[in-house]
């Protein structure tokens, strides 16, 4: 297995079987800092491991303060892929556009806003969009929620945490799709999750956007040590476009340890939402389905999934 030091991001290849059972911490031989091993052993992707070694679900925000980079496409297809792999998944849409419902072909009447305000219960707001895949929808009403969070005198950044904590243990994964901007809801999301997955479009040059986003993220990490940038996922990879390779090279040099395999540009991915289908339903043999299955394997750490 590969351990990535959370302090300096250097990789260590170790044989998991050789780690004695009672050893809880490891020291990074590059930076000398120690870190808890359990955070890494959880990643073997086996459900039993997830349940026995980690209390509660893995909570992943799909976030970058820029639109059109593949956040919604990645959130939905990662969540749906995890559900197909046997995990119970809650997908939370925190964008006023409410695209996740559209992409999944469902029309929930209520969602995150009503749950946070306490107007409605989880049973009334969370819908089962697919087998093992539940959706807490976003949409226009979130604008009012933003104002409500803004008006709070204290504790405004933990509003979402207070809402989701009581129900989170029903799930193995909570995947949160975020809006393009940096708003009070995004801050709430980053105070709730422990992992961040950032899609970076290779089509539109977003390295600058990424650097700015990571600065804002590190401001939150000062308060939340457990919040980690776990995955950078290049999207819209098109080898016919010359600059793609250049951007990928830069990403590799700067963020190698957390860089994932790119998601290729695939028109099937842009067509699927109009049919209300995930990529596995709409075009299971497409490059898009192939690439998102790879991402599911990466996130669970289980290379045997779907084989
Ligand atoms: N890999 C891809 N190849 C082709 N089209 C894509 C790909 N990923 C996303 N799209 C399309 O690009 C548009 C923007 O993607 P979206 O996931 O909505 O981005 P965001 O949520 O970051 O704004 C959507 O129309 C989507 O269907
Ligand atoms: Mg979106």
Description:
The protein folds into 2 domains: 1-43, no CATH class; 45-300, 3-Layer(aba) Sandwich (Rossmann fold). It has helices at 38-41, 47-53, 71-84, 99-104, 112-117, 122-125, 142-151, 159-164, 184-192, 207-221, 243-255, 267-271, 279-282, 287-300, and strands at 2-4, 11-13, 25-27, 34-36, 58-62, 89-93, 126-130, 133-136, 173-177, 195-201, 228-235. The protein contains 14 helices and 11 strands. Helix 3 (71-84) crosses helix 14 (287-300). The strands form 3 sheets. The protein has a 7-stranded mixed beta sheet, sandwiched between helices. A hairpin with a 6-residue loop joins strand 3 (25-27) and strand 4. The longest helix is centred in the C-terminal third of the chain and has 15 residues, at 207-221. It is an alpha/beta fold and 307 residues long. Bound molecules: adenosine-5'-diphosphate (ADP) and magnesium ion (MG). Residues 67-73, 99, 180, 235-236, 263, 265-267, 269-270, 273 line the site of adenosine-5'-diphosphate (ADP).
